[in-house]
Specification:
Layout: H1 2-6, H2 10-22, H3 31-43, H4 47-60, H5 66-78, H6 82-94, H7 101-114, H8 117-131, H9 136-148, H10 154-162, H11 172-184, H12 188-200, H13 208-220, H14 224-237, H15 243-255, H16 259-271, H17 278-290, H18 294-306
Helix pairs in contact: 2-3, 3-4, 3-5, 4-5, 5-6, 5-7, 6-7, 7-8, 7-9, 9-10, 9-11, 11-12, 11-13, 13-15, 14-15, 15-16, 15-17, 17-18
């Protein structure tokens, strides 16, 4: 049964269990047999079947073992049913079945996936007390949780956990999460270190959300040259491109009155097949207005009218400030 379960052969595992039930030479299934079936259904996200098998175990007269509780907790963890996961753990402790190494690590991983940071940290301390050194799989799960869910001192805690990882523990998905977390915190230097690491290892960013976090970080510290360098790297590496990359660069060039370079961005957009939108013209219009070059600004107005976009908000000579464009 165990071999079939680990090989993903669910039907054969269930068939073996029923054969065991019918064979008088073997006697009725024991708790271990039920535990394997519970684990099988949990892995397959068949929660109803898992719970029904647990009831069958109770009806058989066999007591629940540590293996039973671990299999049920793992099943609820896989199904992201956090409340039931906690409930089983509490029932286990109150029923005087002592958690083991597997139990503590399961709860740690569950809380990490759920984003329950305080409970995750408590589970981590418990795991360290009972397990000793926590393995890299669970360390990465904790770093992932800190990256995804904002928390007090999360960067400090990420840095502490990163110290436990070795060169062979690099994972592309974790690198991308770290890039975004450092970008969200405005830590440009650390963000760039992880960007460089990702590029060196041929990791590819495929989501617009991560790219926007990066360019927002550069925008907030007014680092247009760093942004331009990053965009070139992203283009060459095949990272996810979006119009916001180029609009942001245009806005930042406009703020610094570097109008020829702002115009050059239009060629880049055309090369990567990003059409000019109303916001594209609006950015150019505001750049010319802020530079006092009203003739060029009026030309942009004519171009906007030609494309059917109308006047930018505030009309000719409008005075509102630049902001980071998101599309």
């Amino acid at each position: 049964m165990s071999s079939y379960m680990h090989s993903g052969l669910a039907d054969r595992c269930i068939e073996a269990f029923h054969t065991l039930e019918r064979d008088p030479r073997c006697g009725p299934p024991n708790a271990d047999s039920y535990n394997i079936l519970i684990a099988l259904f949990g892995r397959s996200l068949l929660v109803d079947h898992m719970e029904a098998t647990l009831l069958s175990l109770d009806a058989s007269g066999h007591p629940r073992t540590i293996g039973t509780y671990n299999a049920i907790i793992a099943g609820y963890l896989t199904a992201w049913m956090w409340e039931k996961m906690e409930s089983v753990f509490d029932e286990m402790v109150s029923g005087h079945v002592a958690p083991d190494k597997t139990t503590y690590l399961l709860m740690l991983r569950g809380y990490a996936h759920a984003g329950m940071i305080y409970k995750m940290e408590l589970a981590y301390e418990r795991a360290r007390q009972h397990v000793g050194q926590v393995d890299m799989v669970h360390i990465r799960a904790m770093i992932c949780a800190y990256c995804k869910f904002k928390h007090v001192d999360r960067i400090q805690k990420i840095e502490e956990l990163l110290q436990k990882l070795g060169p062979d523990d690099y994972r592309p998905w974790l690198a991308v999460l770290l890039i975004r977390a450092y970008a969200q915190e405005g830590l440009v230097e650390r963000m760039e270190q992880w960007i460089a690491e990702a590029l060196e290892r041929n990791t590819i960013v495929t989501t617009v959300q991560v790219m926007r976090s990066i360019i927002t970080s550069y925008f907030q510290c007014d680092a247009v040259d760093k942004l331009a360098h990053f965009i070139r790297q992203a283009e060459e590496a095949g990272w996810k491109l979006c119009r916001s990359l180029y609009h942001c660069k245009m806005v930042m060039y406009g703020k610094q009155h570097r109008l020829p370079e702002m115009h050059g961005v239009l060629d880049e957009m055309e090369f990567f097949r990003f059409d000019r939108t109303k916001k594209t013209f609006w950015i150019m219009y505001k750049a010319y207005v802020s530079s006092g070059r009203m003739a060029e600004a009026n030309t942009i107005l004519c171009m906007m009218g030609k494309h059917g976009f109308g006047f930018p908000r505030g009309g000719p000579g409008g005075t509102h400030m630049f902001h980071f464009p998101t599309n």
